């Protein structure tokens, strides 16, 4: 039998939630753990975000590149608002996304999730093999067969989100984000709005949009409706540390506290299938060590997709054996990865405490890995 104190606490919480208590991520009576009390769908079995586990992702060669229309430079107005949870940019309905099955979705808005509560906390919602990125971008769409977003959000096939992950290293400032970031000071307080003019949304997304993960999930904020087709782009957006810190520290919520860590924790997969239109590959973080490497991007959706370029990571033989990764990251096309312990190799690559120089050799799909010399010190 439920203890009396617990029962009373739940009754009080339910009463307060019913009288307009605002949901939060980590504070107050309606924090993330208690969303289902006010928004029952938040406790469902098809929730988002999730951890994208590469060993469980299923390769689906029939998934074509997404066809994005109207995402380029548009000289009209883009209203931008601090809604107390994030910054949201309203998008024109002339922007649309058509998926490989022919479904067309119209753009509604884009917003961001970030960390920032400490220098060690990143804020993406989706993770890849447990790794969280610094920021996640969501471009929210609704199915064009419905008359409005409000109608579509109630339907089982109503919504789609194009998501992109952001990483930061020693990058120079991303000029495509300058206008957006410079106007954050205009919406410092919750409820404030401003207008951006002349945005190129495509330039604010990853350079290579051909490859993505796909699964069925939910909105990541209340009401958490389970009617969202997710498309998480495999490539990443690169921002400078200064730009990330500006986003993490510019906006205040309804309690006049800095909006930070506005991301939901990953949710159970519950036997859902996650697909991708590329073969399993090492974490993209390895590619950021190659200066000047550019994707040979193309948008011809009628051409067969090829797996993206991968990298072979070679550890110095001078290191003690217990520190030497046994995995090798090489392009395989339709072959399986040649690996013995790719997770160890991946962890090693992220460990900045290891001072050994690594050798990254870009290898094109279908080519034999060349013989690689030992690194020099």
Written overview of the protein:
It is found in: Secreted. This is Carbonic anhydrase. Keywords: Disulfide bond, Glycoprotein, Lyase, Metal-binding, Secreted, Signal, Zinc. This protein is α+β, with helices and mostly antiparallel strands and 377 residues long. The protein folds into three domains: 1-38, no CATH class; 39-276, Carbonic Anhydrase II (Roll); 284-363, no CATH class. 12% of the residues lie in helices and 25% in strands. It contains six helices and 17 strands. The protein has helices spanning 4-18, 35-38, 149-152, 178-182, 241-249, 342-350; strands at 51-52, 58-59, 67-69, 73-82, 87-90, 96-98, 104-114, 127-128, 131-132, 135-143, 159-168, 193-200, 212-217, 228-239, 275-276, 310-314, 359-363. The strands form three sheets. Strands 2, 3, 4, 5, 6, 7, 10, 11, 12, 13, 14 and 15 form a twelve-stranded mixed sheet that branches. The chain has a three-stranded mixed sheet with strand order 1-8-9, with no helix packed on it. It has a two-stranded antiparallel ribbon with strand order 16-17. A hairpin with a 4-residue loop joins strand 4 (73-82) and strand 5. Mean pLDDT is 77; it is low at 1-19 and 285-377.
- The CATH homology group name of the largest domain: Alpha carbonic anhydrase
Known CATH architecture of the largest domain: Roll
Main beta sheet, described?
12 strands, mixed
Label the overall shape: globular
User: How many distinct beta strands?
Assistant: 17
**Order of helical and strand elements:** HHEEEEEEEEEEHEHEEEHEEHE
The CATH topology assignment of the largest domain is Carbonic Anhydrase II
